[in-house]
Every structure is written in C-alpha cells, then in structure tokens.
UniProtKB/TrEMBL annotation:
InterPro entries: DNA/RNA_pol_sf, Rev_trsase/Diguanyl_cyclase, RNA-dir_DNA_polymerase, RT_dom, RT_RNaseH
Positions of the Reverse transcriptase domain: 1-115
Record keyword Hydrolase present: yes
Top-level taxonomic group: Eukaryota
GO molecular function, one term: RNA-directed DNA polymerase activity
Entry keyword Ribonucleoprotein: no
Keyword entries, A-Z: Endonuclease, Hydrolase, Nuclease, Nucleotidyltransferase, RNA-directed DNA polymerase, Transferase
Protein name: Reverse transcriptase domain-containing protein
Length: 208
C-alpha cells in the first residue's frame, strides 16, 4: 500500500512555514504542508509511520517510508489485519492512493524486490535477523546453489541444508550469540528421531 502524496499529508508547524517560502510572479508563497524537498522529510514521515503502526510493525505489517505491507498466513487473519491498518490510517487522517495499492495477493513487489511463495529448487537461503524492541534488523543473508543430487532432497532436508549452510558461513555469530531458528518444522524432535537418515544424523552432530 502507498499513501496519496504522503509528505503533503503532514502539516508544517506554523513557526516553520516561512522557511519553506518561495517567490513566483512577484508573490511570496510558503507551504502549509511538508514538501518532499525538505532534508528530513523522509525521516519525519518514517517516524510518523512508526508511531501509527507501532504495535503492528514486525508482526502484521512492514513499513518503509511510504511503502506499507500488511501480511498474514491465513486469509481471515489478513482481512482482520487490513481492517486494523485502515482503522489506524483513518484515525490519523492519512489517505491511501488506490492506484498504488494491491490487496489479497500471495506475491508482489516490495521495496523493489519480488516476494513470492514459490520455493526455488536450485537454491537454499536464509537470513540472520537481530530483534530490537519491536523492530527486526537484517544482519546477514546466505544462499547456496544446490548440487544436482541435493535438488532431490525432501523439503525437510532442504530446510536443514539451508541451516547447515548458514551455520558454516556465519559460525562466529552462532558461537558468540544465542540464535533462534524460526521454522514450522519441529527440528529438535526430528534430530532426535532414531529412524532419521544418516545425512540428518550427520547434520545434527554438526549443528549441536
């Protein structure tokens, strides 16, 4: 989602309007709202977004300046999250630009990147994220092109392969800090399964 001329939806302080003045046809004008040319316009707008969506960012929303993404794993939750986002926008009298909004999609562009649910069969990747208060900061991204034999691994083994690749590349981080693996799979019980394959047992030893 995107707002309609978002910077112009923020009023200028009455004592600062004169600093935005300009002359056209012998008349002097000044902005009543924040123009996009101000040095700190982006930071001011981001601060407003952080204030509006302080309870949603990192949970049901991601916001970067004027780009907003409402997310959910289930359709019903997505509708509820959208309703809450709309309520907050109305509360702060922020207007959206319909031509720049897309709803109910499982893939799309955000911050210039294409996000999709499709899983690559030729690459495994992971992201190391540092949580701070209500925000998440990416620290490092890892990826590896899988070998021909590895393309035939089951989905679970590809997931663990991504974890193994991550620990090998980011060993100093794993050794110096506690790292929490965010996944839908019960990795602990899988590694302790006596019927696990030799490959899984080998990886379990490496990760322990």
């Amino acid at each position: 989602m995107d707002t309609y001329s978002g910077y112009n939806q923020i009023l200028m302080h009455k004592d600062k309007k004169a600093k935005t003045s300009f002359i056209i046809d012998r008349w002097t004008y000044c902005y009543k709202v924040m123009p996009s040319g101000l040095k700190n316009a982006g930071a001011t707008y981001q601060r407003l977004m952080n204030r509006i969506f302080k309870e949603q960012i990192g949970k049901t929303m991601e916001v970067y300046v004027h780009d907003m993404l409402v997310k959910a794993s289930k359709r019903a939750d997505h509708i509820k999250n959208l309703a809450e986002a709309f309520r907050l926008l109305r509360q702060y009298r922020m207007k959206l630009n319909p031509s720049k909004c897309t709803f109910g999609v499982s893939s799309g562009r955000f911050l210039g990147y294409l996000g999709t649910q499709r899983v690559s069969k030729s690459v495994v990747n992971s992201a190391l994220i540092r949580g701070e208060l209500r925000t998440q900061h990416p620290v490092f991204y890892t990826s590896k092109a899988v070998l021909d034999a590895e393309t035939h691994y089951p989905k679970l083994e590809k997931l663990i392969l991504a974890l193994v690749v991550s620990t090998r590349k980011l060993r100093p981080y794993y050794q110096a800090h506690r790292v929490i693996v965010m996944t839908d799979f019960p990795l602990r019980s899988i590694f302790h399964n006596p019927d696990a394959s030799q490959r899984l047992m080998k990886w379990a030893i490496e990760l322990s």
